[in-house]
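Progress against Task 2.4 (sequence-to-structure conversion) is shown through the following example record, which the project officer requested during the mid-term review.
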Amino acid sequence: MNFCSFCAQLTEDPREVYTSATSTAIRCNALLPPIGNKAATPIEINSYGKNSDRLRNLKANAQVYIHGAKLRHDLDARAYSVHGGVIAVVNDQFPIFNTVILGGRCIKDLSQADERSFKTTESGLMITNQTLSVSTGRNQADLFNFFAINKTDDKLNQAELLVNFTRKGTGLTLQGRLVTDSWIDPKTNERKLNTKVQLVSMTLAPRTQPQAPEIQPQATVAANTEVKGLWGGKSADDIAEPWGINTGSMPELPGQFANDDNDAEPF
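Structure tokens generated for the chain above:
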């Protein structure tokens, strides 16, 4: 599963690009509004077909809402992009949406002893990092880094559930939001960005059950014993028929009379 809905502000005029020898798309860069103390998230918008006409005529700084698109992640470039969906122009009064729904499999085992996977801060927060592989078809997949953060005394502790119940190969569907951390590299004095999916809720796939043991007969029947028919000897020809086969019509509704020539009154 791959579904996302975002509010974004264009940072450039949309442009037409070739996606193959015979097809094009409308593409532009944009920013997702920051959430809390996070930074704005850079993202590339790709629109196709009739929906691209709405994006084509917009200019830089336009605010848009993208509904039902697919989220992609270029791991080498560390860049996120959205593809497809319906695009609508909005204004400052429109609520900010940032929703990602992804379904796939976790790609690594977690250990509470590994601070890269799990840690508890001095302020009492628990943070778990995991990576989800989401199929893109043709034996290909995108990898999405995501994290859960909770207070240690929260009733629903997603971070603890992740570290305790997810392993390499665990099936998982998550709902989250795309967020970006920003900092200045002390060595290069350059601004760095790190974008991840922050977990909001999740559903673990059912655990694989061991193969059921073969059912063994509980009684034996002599070879010459006559086997009696089931259901009193009835066959499939005796299955009840739907209304209209033998009755000629559907049953009359309560209060409806076949000989009543008056038009029905409204409720």
